[in-house]
Amino acid sequence: MTNPTDPTTTSDTAPATASGDADAPPVPHPTPKPGPKPGPRPGPHPRAADAPVVPTLVPHGDPHKFGRIDSEGVVWLRRGGGEREIGSWQAGSIEDGLAHFARKFDDLATEVEILEERLAARSGDPRKAQTAAKHLLDALPTAAVIGDVAALEERLTVIVGSADEVADSIKAERDKARSAAIARKEELATEAEQIGADSTQWKVAGDRLRAILDEWKTIKGVDRKTDDTLWKRYAKARDAFNRRRGAHFAELDRERAGAKARKEELITRAEELSGSTDWGPTSARFRELLTEWKAAGRAPRDADDALWQRFKAAQDVFFSARNAATSERDNEFAANAAAKLALLDEAEKTIDPSSDLEAARRDFRSFRDKWDEVGKVPREQMGSLEARARALEKRLRDAEDAQWQRTDPEAQARAAQFADRAAQLEDQARKADERGKAKDAATLREQAAQWKEWADAAASAIADR
C-alpha cells in the first residue's frame, strides 16, 4: 500500500533491500550513523491542578524499534504489540526509508511540542491549541510516521484535557489583573479629584498630576468603557486644577503689577529724600518707607530685583552722607570729651571750698562757663563726665550750706533759748528746796538738765558747722 501524499513512495525504479511480512522478525541491518537529535526528556507525568503544561520532546528514537520496511517496500508501524501498514517505500534503501518516516514523526512531535510550549507559556488562545491538538489526535491513527506514537497520543491527550483548565486560569488571571488595574485607576482618579478640588501647592500638585498621568499610561487591561469613565474623572480633575492654578497666577500677576507700581512710588519718594541733611527725621522716614516696601509684596520676578536696587541706591546716598556727617561729628565730640576731661582735671585740683569759699565760687563759675562752651561729647562718655562735674559742684554746695548753718541767727537764738530755759528751771528748783518741796525741786532739776542738754547740742551743732 502506498501513501499518495508522499512522492518518495511512488518510485517504481528504486529496488527494495529488505523483505519479510508482518509475522516475520525484522531483518537485521547495519546500524546507521545517527544524525544530531534533541536530547531525551522525561516522559509525561501527572500534573497538579494549577501546574502548567511542560513541553516534553519525544524523539523518534531507533526507527527499527517502532517500524520496519519489508522486502516488498511496505512500511509498517509497530505499536502495542501489533503492526499497521502506513505506506510503501521505493525511493531508496530501507535505512533511508526508515529515516524518512522517522523524520515525519519528528515533524509531528515538533507540532505537539509547539502546542505544549504555548500552553506552558500561557500565550495565545488555549482553546485554539486544544482544537489543534484534537485535530492531530484524530489524525494520529492514520499518520504515516515511525516513532513512539503512543507517547505522542498521550501528550496530545494531556493538551486536550488541560487546555480548558489553562484557559480558565488565564481568564481568572486576566480578570484579577483587570480588577487590580481598575482599582488602581480608581485610586489615581480619586487622588486627582482631591488635588483638583482644593490643593494650592501648585508646583507639587502639578508634578503629582503629571506623575499620575505617566502611571496611568502604564496600566493596561481595563475595558474601554470603564477606562473612558475613569479617564473623564481624571481629565476633569486636572482641568479643574489647571483652572484654579491659572486663576491664582492671574490674580498673582495683578497683585505683582500693583506691587510694582507701589514700589515705583516708594522709589520716587526715597530718591527725593536721598539729598536731605535732616538726619534724624529723614532716617525715621526711610525706616517707614522700608516697612511700606515690605508690605507692598513682590513685583514680577524680572522687575523686583531691579526695583530693589533702585530703592537701595537712594537709601545708600542718604545714609552714606549721614555716616560721613556722623563720623565728622564723632571726631568733634571726641575732641570735646578730651577738653572736658582737661577742665575737670584742672578744676578738681584748684577748686577748694574748705580753704577759700569765695575763691572756690569764682573758680567754679569760670569752670562751668568753659564747660558749656565746649559742647557735646560722645554719648558713652557723657554720664561719667557729668558725674564728675556734679561731684565738684556738690563739694561747693556742701561748703556753702555748712557756712550758712554756722552763721544762722535762728540757730544761735534757739541755743540761747534752751540755755535760758535750763537756768530758769534751776532757779525754780532752788526756790522749791527753800520752801521744803524736795520732790518738786527734784522734778524741776530733771527738766533743767534736759533743757541744758538741748542747749549744749544746739551750741555743738553751730560749732561743728
Describe this structure in words.
The protein is built from twelve helices and three strands, in the order H-E-E-E-H-H-H-H-H-H-H-H-H-H-H. With 465 residues, the protein is mainly alpha-helical. The chain has five domains: 7-30 and 37-173, no CATH class; 176-256; 261-315, no CATH class; 330-404; 409-464. A three-stranded antiparallel β-sheet has the order 1-2-3. Strand 2 and strand 3 (82-88) form a beta hairpin.
Order of helices and strands: HEEEHHHHHHHHHHH
**Which sequence of strands runs across the widest sheet?**
1-2-3
Whole-number average pLDDT?
81
Tell me the number of strands: 3
How much of the polypeptide forms β-strand, as a percent range?
A: under 5%
Task: Estimate the helix proportion, in percent.
Answer: over 70%
How would the global form be characterised?
rod-shaped
Distance between the ends: 169 Å
Radius of gyration, Cα only, in angstroms?
65 Å
Counted by DSSP, the helix tally is: 12
Structural domain count: 5
Structural class: mainly alpha
Which regions are unreliable across 5 or more consecutive residues at pLDDT < 50?
1-56
What is the makeup of the main sheet? 3 strands, antiparallel
